[in-house]
Every structure is written in C-alpha cells, then in structure tokens.
Amino acid sequence: MKNLILAAAILAGASTYATVNNTNTPITQVHKIVEYGFQEISLDKIPTTITNSLKNSFPSATLSKAFVNEKEQYKLEISVENETKTLYADKDGNWLEAKDVK
Asked: How do beta strands 62-68 and 73-80 pair?
C-alpha cells in the first residue's frame, strides 16, 4: 500500500513538473523598471513644480511618459517639433544632467 501511495505521489509530482516547465507563456511585468531604478508613473503624479518648469523651458513640448526613482528624480519623455527627447529633473523642477542621475 505504501508503494502505491508513493508511486501516485511521484506521478503527480512529475506531471506537475512537466506541466509547469512546458508552459511557453511570457511573463508580463506590471511596472516597467528602467535604468537607474526608474519606475513609470502616470502623468498626473508629476509634481506641479516639474510641469511648470517644463512649460517654461519647452512651451511647445508634449509630455508622453514620466518615470521616477527612489531619490525623487524624474525622467520625462517629451516630443518637441516631431523629435523625442529625454529630460531629467529633481522634485523641485530643477533640470539635471543625465550623468548626475543616480
């Protein structure tokens, strides 16, 4: 009887293993993580200091994506005259050089 229970347990484990490893479904990330630990956020989460700075510095720009890291540095993807640009700013709306973002 023990052998029957053991055999059933082994078969159940083997079929579960085969089922799990034969799955070719890609894993989808919920949040997009990019370099320097940035995580995408919705545009309405951007501080007004940054949106005001963007309007003053690039009045014809269209903001398409925004990211933030744990140091509250923001990465902004904008379109200006059919050209895509990436800007970095701190939470106070001061522009940062890419090399200064960590």
From this structure: antiparallel
Side chain identity, residue 27: I
Amino acid (1-letter code) at residue 84: T
Q: What is the dihedral of CA 48, 80, 64, 66, to 10 degrees?
A: -50
Q: Tell me which amino acid residue 14 is.
A: A
Structure tokens belonging to residue 18:
């085969």
Please identify, in words, the CATH class of the domain defined by 30-100: alpha beta
Q: Which of 62, 77, 69 is nearest to 34 (CA)?
A: 69
Q: What confidence tens digit (pLDDT) does each residue in 21-69 have?
A: 555 555 544 444 455 589 999 999 999 999 999 999 999 999 999 999 9
- Give domain limits for the chain: 30-100
> At CA 49, angle to CA 43 and CA 55, rounded to 5?
75
